[in-house]
């Protein structure tokens, strides 16, 4: 991380000529501006910059959508303010002469925009902090690499692409060597941007890989996740490749984003473990995650495609059970003593990290505040458990659960519930209006 003074010194020497000011949108993407570095240090550092408030009221195609309270034609599509969070100021090694800083979103009156993903996470962290607890999070984000450029992939309609590996390279050192130039460029680029890479490994789908980073406090992890996802695409493009974080891009294994989550006391002491077992607080913590997962699924699985991961035997959960080191459960307890943590296995590679982590914190708080009792750990294959509550099967089901959730209304507020329910509705309407390849194949001649 750089201080404002360190940035200014590098601008004075000409080392930095561009500063990216970025916010996170509803889809978890970085949006913003490239600013001339001298203008940034002389002006934007003091008063921020403006951006159209439609950035929190568009679909994935950046089409303005009616029905949002935060922005719309009837409100004139005005601006909100992007205020740099200097704790996130850093160099971007893969872009010459460039630094980046993330922004918090507020109105012209200085009030935070409550439906902004970063603000939603800040609110949940504050709720946890009030109880003397600090959240720590690590995200494991998978992606699939293709030999085509992004432009070539688009021209092909994203079909018939050539994966970077022609066979399953899960843990294969030989197979991952084929993609090591890209993986190394991403690891070193992210290290230069202040992240802490741990490892890279192959995964099951053809061309699928994962780069893991050290866990950190919740907001920092979300910030780093968003930057990593953005930067990985930029680095792949520079090397003439493309990659996707889609939850389910083909019929093989999907891209997951398992989220490792624990809490500590304000003094930094782990509080989930009691020797080899869960503490009482730890039991309430896990019980709260289980009790709220279905109602918060919109936060963990925000797209139509997200729900196609949840298939038996896919390593994506279908049963809302928890187990010790059991990858068939929605919540997997891993580690021991100080490293004990919950791995939430619902999110896919398409997840917005701020919303997912906010959901985990709100769920844990529900369990802690209400002292929920934890069911026994599940052993065996949870896919075969006919008695378990199920993960929502569709975005429509998840939207209904979210809208009717009293827990969500109390934890996030009616404005946030309405905003992200509407986002799900926009996605559903677009999908239901589309004519798919599946329909053409079945109906063009035969019907």
What does this protein structure show overall?
This protein is an alpha+beta fold and about 450 residues long. The chain folds into two domains: about 5-115, Roll (Ubiquitin-like (UB roll)), CATH 3.10.20; about 125-145 and about 205-220 and about 245-435, 2-Layer Sandwich (Creatine Kinase, Chain A, domain 2). It contains 14 helices and 17 strands. The chain has helices at about 5-15, 35-45, 115-130, 150-155, 175, 180-190, 220-240, 280-290, 295-300, 355-370, 395-405, 405-410, 415-435, 435-445, and strands at about 20-25, 30-35, 50, 80-85, 90, 100-105, 135-145, 195-200, 210-215, 215, 240-245, 255-265, 275, 275-280, 320-325, 330-335, 340-345. The strands form three sheets. Strands 7, 8, 9, 10, 11, 12, 15, 16 and 17 form a nine-stranded mixed sheet that branches. Strand 16 (about 330-335) and strand 17 form a beta hairpin. Helix 3 packs parallel to helix 10, helix 8 (about 280-290) crosses helix 10 and helix 12 packs across helix 13. The longest helix is centred in the middle third of the chain and has 21 residues, at about 220-240. It is globular, with a radius of gyration of 22 Å. The mean pLDDT is about 95.
CATH architecture descriptor of the largest domain: 2-Layer Sandwich
Distance N terminus to C terminus? 61 Å
User: What is the helical fraction, as a range of percent?
Assistant: 25-40%
Radius of gyration: 22 Å
CATH class of the largest domain: Alpha Beta
Number of domains: 2
Would you count the extended β strands for me?
A: 17
| CATH fold node name of the largest domain | Creatine Kinase, Chain A, domain 2
User: What percentage of amino acids are in beta strands?
Assistant: 15-25%
Apparent shape: globular
Give the count of helical stretches: 14
Q: Report the biggest beta sheet as strand number plus sense, adding barrel if it closes.
A: 9 strands, mixed
> Structural class, please?
alpha+beta
Supply the CATH superfamily name of the largest domain: Glutamine synthetase/guanido kinase, catalytic domain
**Low-pLDDT ranges:** none
């Amino acid at each position: 991380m750089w201080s404002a003074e360190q940035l200014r010194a590098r601008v004075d020497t000409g080392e930095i000529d561009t500063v990216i000011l970025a916010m996170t949108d509803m889809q978890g993407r970085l949006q913003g501006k490239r600013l001339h570095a001298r203008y940034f240090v002389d002006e934007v550092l003091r008063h921020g910059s403006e951006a159209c408030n439609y950035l929190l009221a568009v679909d994935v195609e950046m089409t303005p959508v009616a029905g949002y309270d935060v922005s719309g034609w009837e409100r004139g599509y005005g601006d909100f303010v992007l205020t740099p969070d200097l704790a996130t100021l850093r160099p971007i090694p893969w872009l010459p002469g460039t630094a980046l800083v993330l922004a918090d979103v507020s109105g012209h009156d200085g009030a935070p925009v409550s439906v902004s993903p970063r603000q939603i996470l800040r609110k949940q962290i504050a709720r946890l902090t009030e109880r003397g607890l600090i959240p720590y999070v690590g995200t494991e984000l998978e992606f699939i690499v293709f030999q085509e450029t992004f432009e070539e992939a688009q021209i092909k309609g994203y079909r018939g692409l050539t994966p970077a590996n022609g066979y399953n390279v899960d843990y294969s050192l030989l197979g991952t060597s084929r993609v090591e130039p890209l993986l190394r460029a991403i690891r070193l680029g992210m290290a230069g941007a202040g992240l802490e890479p741990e490892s890279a490994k192959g995964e099951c789908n053809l061309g699928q890989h994962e780069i893991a980073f050290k866990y950190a406090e919740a907001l920092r992890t979300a910030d780093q996740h968003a930057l990593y996802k953005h930067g990985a695409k930029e680095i792949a493009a520079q090397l003439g490749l493309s990659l996707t974080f889609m939850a389910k891009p083909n019929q093989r294994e999907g891209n997951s984003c398992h989220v490792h989550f624990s809490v500590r006391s304000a003094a930094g002491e782990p509080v989930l473990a009691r020797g080899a077992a869960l503490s009482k607080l730890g039991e309430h913590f896990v019980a709260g995650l289980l009790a709220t997962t279905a109602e918060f699924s919109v936060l963990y699985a925000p797209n139509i495609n997200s729900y196609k991961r949840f298939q038996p035997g896919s390593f994506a959960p279908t049963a809302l059970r928890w187990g010790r080191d059991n990858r068939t459960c929605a919540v997997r307890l891993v580690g021991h003593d100080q490293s004990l943590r919950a791995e939430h296995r619902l999110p896919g590679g398409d997840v917005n990290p701020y919303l997912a982590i906010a959901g985990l914190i709100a769920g844990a708080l529900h369990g802690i505040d209400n002292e929920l009792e934890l069911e026994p750990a599940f052993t065996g294959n949870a896919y075969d458990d006919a008695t378990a509550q199920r993960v929502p099967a569709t975005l429509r089901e998840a939207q209904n659960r979210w809208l009717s959730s009293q827990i969500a209304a109390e934890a996030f507020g009616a404005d946030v519930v309405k905003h992200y329910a509407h986002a799900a509705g926009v996605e559903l309407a677009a999908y239901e209006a589309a004519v798919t390849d599946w329909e053409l194949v079945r109906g063009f001649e035969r019907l």
